[in-house]
Amino acid sequence: MKELTLVLKLTLLEKKDVLIAIFFGFLAGIAGVALMGSSGYLISKAALTSQMTTLVVMAAVLKLFGFASALSRYGERLYSHRATFTMLSHLRVSFFERLSPLAPRIFSKYRSGDLLSRIVGDVESLQNFLLRVFYPPVVLGIVFLSVVFFTSFFSLGIAIVIFIGMLLTVVVVPALFSSRKRRMDGQVRAQRGNLAIESTEFLYGFRDLKIHQQLNAKEQQLKSDAAQYNEGQRQEGLEENLAQSMNAFVALLVSFFVLGVGAYFVAAGELDGLYLAMLVMVSIAAFENVAPMAAFPTHFEESRKAAVRLEEIVAEPDLPQGSEPMPSGPLDIRLDKVSFQYPNENSLALDRISLHLLPGTKTAIVGPSGSGKSTLMQVLLSVFPLSQGQLSIGGIPVEALKQEEIWQQMNIVLQENHFFYGTIRSNLLVANPLATDEQMIDVLAKVQLDILPLSMTVEEKGQNLSGGQKQRLAIARAMLKGKSLWLMDEPVSSVDSLTGHAIYQQMFQQHKDDLFVIISHDLTGLEKMDQIIVMEKGCIVESGSYDELMEKKAYFYQLKEIENSVFT
């Protein structure tokens, strides 16, 4: 039950609605019991009296109880569902607040389909916590205790039988089936997550599967996963039906015991026969309310596992964040013996990197694939915690700064840039919501995208744009943001050389006082860089200006010679 502690706390935030729902649920349950009990009493009384006044009054009481039951049931549904929807709102907000600081590094651990299944499916599953897990035992307990208290005035033996029946149907049978459900290991939820993963892969990779003629194989795998999920749901349904049948059988058995014990007491003269039918009908009506407990094991385990799966995500250790504001004015970046190791990896991705990047300078980071360039970019963005060493911006350690404020001061262009469904205008306004149309048209002209109107539709993930257009639109977005720190990872790899050089020239001329850090595989045009960092196997093997590195005739010189030999 400890897994559901947070959900319980969020539910009790709406304690007023919860208490009102419990109150109306009790009234509905006890009114139903009173309706059946009055019916039994009326039948017995009608057989023993000819006074019409008594019978008319009892008939009126029956109608009153029926009306009270219906009205109370409506109030119960109204307040219990309102509390449920409010709880779900609190849960989503709480979950998102704990999840957002973990992005984007969390995407390296969880696949997108699995995340979607948890964020949507598991959160939705918890809507049953109040209605099917927390609420029914509480209401049933109060109703049954009231019934036991009432019947004890007529027969203590019958009250004991009803109390034992309450323990069996409300506690013992649900506990038994909850234990069975737990032993089944909750494979249905895992199967649903796997189906979501494979469906997402199928959707994203449809074109490539079609090209490589693997579509049929993937479809068969998807059908197999769907069949497993359906079979798991079928088994869950059978288990729930078995629980419902067992609960109904126990309830019926208890009612027979009440009848038998009552008949014995009547024969022994310990109970007035006038009340026997009433007590039997009270028992039947009370045990009619135990139907929701048949589904209790399923919903309890479903809620518990959903809470566990959600907690697995947000339980990731968050990066330490301080409260100091970002310093104003030109900012420098310093790395002092920084090392970084990916989780579950044996080797260091970055090994004792020391750098000092000054305002108004342009630094290029080059090296072969897998040398650690993109990892260094992620470290500069403060996405990953350092294994050792110190990273500071503007003379302040990043641990003392808020991650959002660090990103707010950076113009970032990554290898993969996301574009939202909308227009060119809406995608540019992501960087600067206050930008005017004139400013947006100006930055589009600087990256040679002025042929695209601001009203042009951008499809999902920018799939109607070419690779070069996506990169130039990302650079335009960075220009529109207008901050002094530029971090760019292969920003023009899909753009032709002439256009790429023209874009660089625009940026360098108009932002002379800014700090540029550019990762590039292309070694041409590096003569304009103030500093070139050459990386290999997570280490800096060389650094200096273009002329200095060429004069050394070492690692960078060899890379340049290889490039020249390939393209000449």
TrEMBL record:
<feature type="transmembrane region" description="Helical">
    <location>
        <begin position="129"/>
        <end position="150"/>
    </location>
</feature>
<dbReference type="Pfam" id="PF00664">
    <property type="entry name" value="ABC_membrane"/>
</dbReference>
<keyword id="KW-0812">Transmembrane</keyword>
<dbReference type="InterPro" id="IPR003439">
    <property type="entry name" value="ABC_transporter-like_ATP-bd"/>
</dbReference>
<feature type="domain" description="ABC transporter">
    <location>
        <begin position="333"/>
        <end position="562"/>
    </location>
</feature>
<feature type="transmembrane region" description="Helical">
    <location>
        <begin position="20"/>
        <end position="43"/>
    </location>
</feature>
<dbReference type="GO" id="GO:0140359">
    <property type="term" value="F:ABC-type transporter activity"/>
</dbReference>
<feature type="domain" description="ABC transmembrane type-1">
    <location>
        <begin position="19"/>
        <end position="302"/>
    </location>
</feature>
<protein>
    <submittedName>
        <fullName>Thiol reductant ABC exporter subunit CydC</fullName>
    </submittedName>
</protein>
<keyword id="KW-0067">ATP-binding</keyword>
<dbReference type="GO" id="GO:0045454">
    <property type="term" value="P:cell redox homeostasis"/>
</dbReference>
<dbReference type="GO" id="GO:0005524">
    <property type="term" value="F:ATP binding"/>
</dbReference>
<dbReference type="GO" id="GO:0016887">
    <property type="term" value="F:ATP hydrolysis activity"/>
</dbReference>
<dbReference type="GO" id="GO:0034040">
    <property type="term" value="F:ATPase-coupled lipid transmembrane transporter activity"/>
</dbReference>
<dbReference type="Pfam" id="PF00005">
    <property type="entry name" value="ABC_tran"/>
</dbReference>
<keyword id="KW-0547">Nucleotide-binding</keyword>
<feature type="transmembrane region" description="Helical">
    <location>
        <begin position="156"/>
        <end position="177"/>
    </location>
</feature>
<dbReference type="InterPro" id="IPR017871">
    <property type="entry name" value="ABC_transporter-like_CS"/>
</dbReference>
<dbReference type="InterPro" id="IPR027417">
    <property type="entry name" value="P-loop_NTPase"/>
</dbReference>
<dbReference type="InterPro" id="IPR011527">
    <property type="entry name" value="ABC1_TM_dom"/>
</dbReference>
<dbReference type="InterPro" id="IPR003593">
    <property type="entry name" value="AAA+_ATPase"/>
</dbReference>
<keyword id="KW-1133">Transmembrane helix</keyword>
<keyword id="KW-0472">Membrane</keyword>
<feature type="transmembrane region" description="Helical">
    <location>
        <begin position="55"/>
        <end position="75"/>
    </location>
</feature>
<dbReference type="InterPro" id="IPR036640">
    <property type="entry name" value="ABC1_TM_sf"/>
</dbReference>
<dbReference type="GO" id="GO:0034775">
    <property type="term" value="P:glutathione transmembrane transport"/>
</dbReference>
<feature type="transmembrane region" description="Helical">
    <location>
        <begin position="248"/>
        <end position="267"/>
    </location>
</feature>
<dbReference type="GO" id="GO:0005886">
    <property type="term" value="C:plasma membrane"/>
</dbReference>
<dbReference type="InterPro" id="IPR039421">
    <property type="entry name" value="Type_1_exporter"/>
</dbReference>
<dbReference type="InterPro" id="IPR014223">
    <property type="entry name" value="ABC_CydC/D"/>
</dbReference>
